[in-house]
């Protein structure tokens, strides 16, 4: 199959509609396609230690997933409000969605409009990233953590046909609540796999990046996201690179956080705040030597990030192979480990 990275089609049957545990597998039993210096290998995720070396550093995202979807009503229409990002002034970035997981089209969001929630109200201020009008800033007249704890559930989209408990949206690394959607590249890791990595000489280190919501409008850039790279992780990244080890990012979230904290020479510094870094042809990766990732939709900005790390030809070949070989897409789907061409 010929793949143009902004035009390929993912057949509907390639959407993973349920967690692998519900499909008779295990978290670490999902498929793993490894691309290393032009060689493609099909494996299972539990085999990850085979493809890493003693001295490599795996950087993980310790952000935990919020129950960020709440049933709502807008102008009398049933809706779901997705809580995407907490802002520094106490407001929230939100997105109105239809109850069946598709974009909300019953009425247009407008400034000062009210979204009714269980025991609370969200008042829309205005679009967060104009001219796009998908995401809005809202003021909530209740404590949002308590609202989500009582009435929230994990965000899902139309390809997930059943509701699954929050346990299915947790990763073994999640410690810091704040992500609207699961940092899904970390989902296949298990305690046993982490132990296997450590005992083979691979080091793990955390960053925090709280994800926003996906499904952007066409042409909409990645949203700003809150992140933190701690001092110890920066030190480990620098020492790994200095001694010839490889830095492997678990997901586009980790890649974005690390690259946001890197200076032009590729040296990492402790950093925190909001990142607006967009990786691509104009801003290639400086720190990351490989990344573990799920499979993304055509035209997604994540694809540009993958190319910034692994190169366009590596990504194109991997996607062509995944489509030809039955790999599954989305947060409950299969995975890839893509190294830089010189990795």
Task: Please explain how this structure is put together.
The protein has two domains: 12-65 and 165-339, 3-Layer(aba) Sandwich (QueA-like); 69-153, no CATH class. Helices cover 18% and strands 27% of the residues. The chain has helices at 144-151, 191-199, 231-242, 252-260, 301-310, 312-324, and strands spanning 31-36, 39-44, 57-61, 63-65, 69-74, 77-86, 92-97, 114-117, 120-127, 136-140, 176-179, 203-210, 225-229, 247-250, 271-275, 290-293, 335-339. The strands form three sheets. A nine-stranded mixed β-sheet has the order 2-1-17-16-14-3-12-13-15. Strands 5-6-7-10-9-8 form a six-stranded antiparallel β-barrel. The longest helix has 13 residues, at 312-324. The model has no long low-confidence stretch (mean pLDDT 93).
Low-confidence stretches: none
**Derived structural class:** alpha/beta
Number of strands: 17
**What profile does the largest beta sheet have?**
9 strands, mixed
Report the mean per-residue pLDDT as an integer. Answer: 93
Residue share in helices? 10-25%
Report the β-strand fraction as a percent range. 25-35%
How many domains, as an integer?
A: 2
How widely separated are the two ends? 26 Å
Give the CATH topology of the largest domain.
Answer: QueA-like
How do the SSEs run, as a string of H and E?
Answer: EEEEEEEEEEHEHEEHEHEEHHE
Core attributes:
343 residues; alpha/beta; QueA-like; 2 domains; 9-stranded mixed sheet; 6 helices; 17 strands; globular
């Amino acid at each position: 199959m010929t793949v143009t990275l902004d035009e390929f089609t993912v057949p509907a049957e390639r959407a993973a509609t349920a967690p692998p545990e519900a499909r008779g597998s295990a978290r670490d039993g999902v498929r793993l396609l490894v691309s290393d210096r032009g060689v493609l290998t099909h494996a299972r995720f539990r085999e990850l230690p085979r493809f890493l070396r003693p001295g490599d550093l795996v950087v993980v995202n310790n952000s935990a997933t919020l129950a960020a979807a709440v049933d709502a009503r807008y102008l009398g229409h049933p809706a779901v409000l997705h809580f995407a990002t907490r802002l520094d002034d106490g407001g929230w970035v939100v997105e109105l969605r239809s109850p069946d997981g598709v974009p909300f089209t019953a009425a247009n969001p407008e400034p000062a409009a009210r979204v009714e929630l269980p025991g609370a109200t969200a008042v829309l201020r205005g679009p967060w990233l104009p001219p796009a009008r998908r995401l809005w800033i809202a003021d909530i007249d209740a404590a949002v953590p308590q609202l989500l704890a009582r009435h929230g559930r994990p965000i899902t989209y139309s390809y997930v046909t059943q509701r699954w408990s929050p346990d299915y949206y947790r990763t073994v690394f999640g410690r810091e609540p704040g992500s609207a959607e699961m940092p899904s590249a970390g989902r296949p890791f298990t305690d046993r796999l982490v132990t296997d990595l450590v005992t083979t000489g691979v080091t793990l280190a955390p960053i925090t990046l709280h994800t926003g919501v996906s499904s952007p409008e066409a042409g909409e850039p990645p949203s700003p996201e809150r992140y933190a790279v701690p001092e110890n992780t920066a030190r480990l990244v620098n020492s790994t690179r200095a001694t010839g080890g490889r830095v492997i990012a678990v997901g586009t979230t980790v890649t974005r956080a690390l690259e946001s904290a890197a200076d032009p020479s590729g040296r990492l510094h402790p950093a925190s705040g909001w990142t607006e870094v967009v990786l691509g042809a104009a801003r290639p990766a400086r720190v990351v030597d490989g990344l573990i990732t799920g499979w993304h939709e055509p035209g997604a900005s994540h694809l540009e990030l993958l190319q910034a790390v692994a190169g366009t030809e590596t990504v194109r070949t991997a996607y062509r192979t995944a489509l030809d070989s039955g790999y599954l897409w989305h947060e409950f789907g299969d995975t890839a480990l893509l190294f830089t061409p010189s990795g």
